[in-house]
Amino acid sequence: MSPLLAAASHTDHNPGAWILLATLTAVAYVAHCVIWPYRACPKCQGAGRFRSPSGKAWRYCNRCGGKGAQLRPGRRVWTHIKNANRDRR
Question: Which domain of life is it from (predicted)?
């Protein structure tokens, strides 16, 4: 039996490894949201405005309000939890 075939026939899954991977991914995302709370607006790609085909006229992006950045969903949750704990005191 070749090593490739032996590896393909091995079907034992380790749930501990999946839990560890999910935990590490969640911790990395939380750290990312704490350090970099804003992301580029997906509609205007961070420019904050749209240009006309001639390039002379432009208008602000409706989604980000012309800022070019939006608060990440994880940071929004982090801020909500932080404010809830502060209000509880």
Answer: Bacteria
Burial class (CB in 10 A: 0-12, 13-18, 19+), 88: exposed
User: pLDDT digit of tens for each residue in the chain (89 aa)?
Assistant: 566 666 656 666 788 888 999 999 999 999 998 899 999 999 998 888 888 888 788 899 999 988 999 999 999 998 898 888 787 76
Distance between CA atoms of residues 52 and 56, nearest Å: 7
Rounded distance between C-alpha atoms, residue 36 and residue 78, angstroms: 12
Beta strands in the chain (DSSP E): 38-40, 49-51, 58-60, 69-71
* Paired residues of 60 in beta bridges: 49
Q: What is the pLDDT of residue 25?
A: 96
